[in-house]
Write a structure and sequence with these properties.
- With 350 residues, this protein is of the alpha+beta class.
- It folds into three domains: 36 residues, no CATH class; 144 residues, Nuclear Transport Factor 2, Chain: A (Roll); 144 residues, Roll (Nuclear Transport Factor 2, Chain: A), CATH 3.10.450.50.
- It is 29% helix and 31% strand.
- A hairpin with a 2-residue loop joins strand 4 and strand 5.
- Helix 2 runs antiparallel to helix 3, helix 3 packs across helix 4 and helix 5 packs antiparallel against helix 6.
- It starts with a strand and ends in a 5-residue tail after the last strand.
- This is Phosphoribosyl-AMP cyclohydrolase.
- Keywords: Signal.
- It comes from Halalkalibacter alkaliphilus.
Length: 350
């Protein structure tokens, strides 16, 4: 570090006094005091251009990790290099909230960040960077710079390598220069955009009912062809019922010994037979058609209820079987309709 000598204030005053004295007075001045003062280390300010270049390189790094993964290369090493280059774990604490993290929301260590990008010890991590992506496009709302620190906020768009629509993500980054003058991320917060719960439409309910009926017919077809009808029924329940998001109230038409089927397994037993003795497999009767006649559909935001009569046509050509129903639907986190209540009964007969 450069050092320079600086005349002390006492020395300056001494010289001034001596100059004001008469020439006859010959008094020798004290030596001028010299003081060593260290330079203040210059703070190199971050520029907006540096931030933009850094963002571009970060996005290219994410794409590169996915390319290495797709080519069967050492993608973990690529991700390690990415984190070392862009994040400041080696110089300070890092506040990192990834987009798709919930069980372990914050990734304050190098290892937990690596797990997020390529999968690791944290069970929820499937590897964000190995999705993979083909492009990352940034749209900054703004960049704030104060000395060797900068903050950017905006939206970036991740384009899937399979050609799907770009995924929109909101971000906040804080950057700081390290001792070598390189930018490092010390805060990274990413979130999916806020979405007000989309109201269910009657058209969606009608399409859902139609698909449910086609699913029941499909299970019977797979059964009749000697296929894996249990797998078909499993897929049907997973697609249409909300057992994975909460409680389901299910009263099947032909259930009495075990009237209510609040578990996935008991519903599967009803549709194709299983551990419950009264279950012969409603969906493997089989049926060739399901016709719906709604008495009405009531919608309240992301919930809907329908009531009416549906008619199941036997595959052997018999008369349609008339059944009364009530269904309640809700949206899951992906926006898909799910059944949370299903009550079916044969018509009253005196």
């Amino acid at each position: 570090m450069k050092k320079f000598k600086m005349m002390g204030i006492a020395g300056i005053l001494s010289v001034a006094l001596l100059t004001a004295c008469s020439e006859d007075t010959a008094t020798e001045a004290d030596p001028v005091e010299e003081t060593e003062v260290e330079d203040v280390e210059e703070v190199v300010e971050i520029t907006e251009e540096e931030v933009l270049e850094f963002q571009q390189s970060w996005g290219e790094g994410i794409v590169h990790i996915g390319e290495v993964y797709s080519e069967g290369g050492d993608y973990e090493a690529a991700a390690t290099e990415h984190i070392e280059r862009f994040y400041g774990y080696d110089m300070s604490d890092v506040l990192f909230k990834p987009t798709l993290a919930r069980e372990e929301r914050f990734r304050g260590t190098f290892e937990s960040a690596l797990s997020y990008f390529v999968g690791g010890d944290i069970s929820e991590d499937s590897g964000f960077a190995i999705a993979p992506w083909s492009d990352v496009r940034w749209e900054n709302e703004g960049v704030l710079i104060e000395g060797n620190k900068a903050v950017s906020m905006g939206v970036y768009y991740f384009t899937p390598a399979d050609g799907g629509e770009p995924v929109e993500v909101e971000y906040t980054f804080t950057f700081k220069k390290d001792n070598d003058g390189d930018l490092k991320i010390v805060l990274h917060s990413s979130h999916l955009p806020y979405s007000a719960t989309q109201a269910i439409t009657e058209e969606e309910v009608l399409e859902f009912q139609q698909s449910w009926g086609e699913g029941i017919v499909h299970i019977g077809e797979v059964y009749s062809e000697g296929g894996d009808y249990e797998a078909a029924a499993t897929e049907h329940i997973e697609r249409f019922y909300g057992y994975d998001i909460g409680n389901v109230l299910f009263k099947p038409t032909l259930a009495r010994e075990e009237r209510f089927r609040g578990t996935f397994e008991s519903a599967l037993s009803y549709f194709v037979g299983g551990d419950i003795s009264e279950d012969s497999g409603f969906a493997i009767a089989p049926w060739t058609d399901v016709q719906w006649e709604n008495e009405g559909v009531i919608i309240d935001g992301n919930k809907a209820v329908s009531m009416g009569v549906y008619y199941f046509t036997p595959a052997d050509g018999g008369e349609p079987v008339e059944v009364e129903y009530t269904f309640s639907y809700t949206r899951n986190d992906d926006g898909d309709l799910k059944i949370v209540l299903h009550s079916s009964h044969l018509p009253y007969s005196n």
